Q: What sequence folds into this?
């Protein structure tokens, strides 16, 4: 049993196997597995979208509320553990969580038949459209402002001390912008089902 918990990959893998068992057993008992249809596919896509979003926004909030504010209190000689090992891994899952969230969200909207209506703010889809555009802007910030700046800051690409220093403010501001936007974006995503406008 201990081997399951020694690796995040194994832990997630066993979690997925457990999910499959739950779905098959409950589906067999309730009769929901007698047919696989469009509703099941959209449910699975919604679940993947939520899981991706939890990863992305969870890491965004971790960076803004834990890692960045804590760094000044860490002795300089110990910061290398964060900058060389933890931050690059966090940023890997952070940026790919953004991609997964956007892709699964767009696929879900397409599967539900409202992608174009939401992206063009048509009546009945204004709330979800607002949330989608906010997420797209946030993902742009991740890939085209935060990640390039962090590569310099963390020494993942060649950069002078001046370039590293210059990258810090745009990275921080884009990350804080995304934190600010995440509040409204999450509201719009949840509110659409309850108050479509």
A:
């Amino acid at each position: 049993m201990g081997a399951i918990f020694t690796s995040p990959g194994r832990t997630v893998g066993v979690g997925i196997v457990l999910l499959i068992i739950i779905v098959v057993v409950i589906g067999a008992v309730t009769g929901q597995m007698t047919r696989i249809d469009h509703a099941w596919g959209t449910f699975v896509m919604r679940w993947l979208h939520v899981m991706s979003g939890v990863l992305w926004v969870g890491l965004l909030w971790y960076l803004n509320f834990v890692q960045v504010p804590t760094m000044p209190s860490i002795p300089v000689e110990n910061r290398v553990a964060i900058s060389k090992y933890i931050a690059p891994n966090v940023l890997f899952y952070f940026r790919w969580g953004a991609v997964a969230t956007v892709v699964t969200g767009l696929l879900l909207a397409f599967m539900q038949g409202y992608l174009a209506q939401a992206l063009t703010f048509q009546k009945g889809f204004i709330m979800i459209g607002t949330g989608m555009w906010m997420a797209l802007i946030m993902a742009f910030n991740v890939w085209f402002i935060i990640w390039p700046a962090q590569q310099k800051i963390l020494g993942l690409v060649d950069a002078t001390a001046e370039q590293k220093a210059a990258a810090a403010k745009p990275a921080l501001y884009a990350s804080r912008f995304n934190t600010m936007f995440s509040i409204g974006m999450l509201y719009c995503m949840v509110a659409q089902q309850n108050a479509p406008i």
Remarks:
- The mean pLDDT is 91.
- The helical segments are 8-30, 38-70, 79-112, 115-119, 126-153, 161-194.
- The longest helix spans residues 79-112.
